[in-house]
Design the sequence.
């Protein structure tokens, strides 16, 4: 498979094989796909229309100035992108409470805030790929994608389609933008040498991640039940296991009663 990578300065690197793409570390780090709405002091603005000097609204409600924006376009010569470069689609409402507000597309390693309180204090940052469930959060097959970085005057958490997601943190890749691998993809421990100043700790497994996966499955079950008029009162959906490909609630003891035969 051959790919063409276009930097934010318009420069292109063509004829790169998939293996070279990984070995040369050209995978974008943590990014938003084109079209993502970022909350700012002037309203919801598509990431590609942001400007340095705009004030982003952070998850805590504070305003922070945008100090740098970069992007990288990746194509695969008419074929689908490698799995590790495909954007992750987070369906509207996947995190419950109407979040995200619309479908959100992130690079696989982009961390989102998990386990925070109602004011978005506390919690940990979890790469979105660690929360994939094959239904409400899953990869999307594409032949190309443009990923965007947004850096603030201090590392913080942006609101992307209303969902708290990490801002850019400099891992030494700024000069080449995208010329560094997504550490979450190649480093299972998510060790980030020389990366300091993160506003929250990062987790790729452990109790908080496991609990969030269960909560997301429950949110999906509840949403699906509401759309299909299913009665899930027999057992709390919080005990539901990970959804299978058929997306049907099949845990022991559950009573699933479709009230609408057309659903």
Sequence:
């Amino acid at each position: 498979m051959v790919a063409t990578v276009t930097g934010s300065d318009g420069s292109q690197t063509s004829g790169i094989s998939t293996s070279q793409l990984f070995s040369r570390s050209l995978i974008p780090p943590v990014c938003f796909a084109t079209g993502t709405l970022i909350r700012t002091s002037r309203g919801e603005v598509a990431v590609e229309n942001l400007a340095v000097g705009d004030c982003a609204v952070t998850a805590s409600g504070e305003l922070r100035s945008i100090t740098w924006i970069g992007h990288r376009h990746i194509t695969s010569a008419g074929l689908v992108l490698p799995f590790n470069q495909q954007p992750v689609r987070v369906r509207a409402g996947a995190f419950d409470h109407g979040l995200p507000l619309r479908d959100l597309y992130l690079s696989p390693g982009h961390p989102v805030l998990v386990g925070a309180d109602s004011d978005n204090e506390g919690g940990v940052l979890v790469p979105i790929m660690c929360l994939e469930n094959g239904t409400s959060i899953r990869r999307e097959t594409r032949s190309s994608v443009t990923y965007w970085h947004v850096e603030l005057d201090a590392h913080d958490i942006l609101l992307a389609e209303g969902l708290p997601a990490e801002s850019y943190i400099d891992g030494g890749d700024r000069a080449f933008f995208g010329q560094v691998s997504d550490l979450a993809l190649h480093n299972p421990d998510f060790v980030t040498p020389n990366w300091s100043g993160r506003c929250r700790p990062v987790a790729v497994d452990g109790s908080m991640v496991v609990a969030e996966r269960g909560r997301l499955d429950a949110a999906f079950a509840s949403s699906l039940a509401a759309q299909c008029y299913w009665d899930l009162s027999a057992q709390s959906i919080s005990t539901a296991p990970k959804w299978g490909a058929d997306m049907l609630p099949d845990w022991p003891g559950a009573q699933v009663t479709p009230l609408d035969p057309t659903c």
In short: Residues 136 and 249 are 15 Å apart (CA to CA).
